Amino acid sequence: MELNATDQLPEDDLPEEVLRTEIFTEARSPIDGKPMTAQEYAELLVEIDQANQVDPQVSPKVRQTVSLLKLRKFLKTVLPILPIK
Question: What is the DSSP string of 14-52?
Fold first, then answer.
């Protein structure tokens, strides 16, 4: 007697491929866990994304130091015999 993989699955068990294509109509808030619609969830994600967009403020001295460190690393890679500490 030959058994197929589909013979062993319960009928209420959906394959993962089907579950991945399922459209979600309900969601929970990532902030407080309250139920919300998919539209409210999408709007909340946009608001969170906009709130997290902050331009970094770096002083010119720090920027120059980082640039010099990058140059030093490059020189050590290209010219490893130079005594750069």
Answer: --HHHHHTPPP-EEE-TTT--EEEHHHHHHHHHHHHHHT
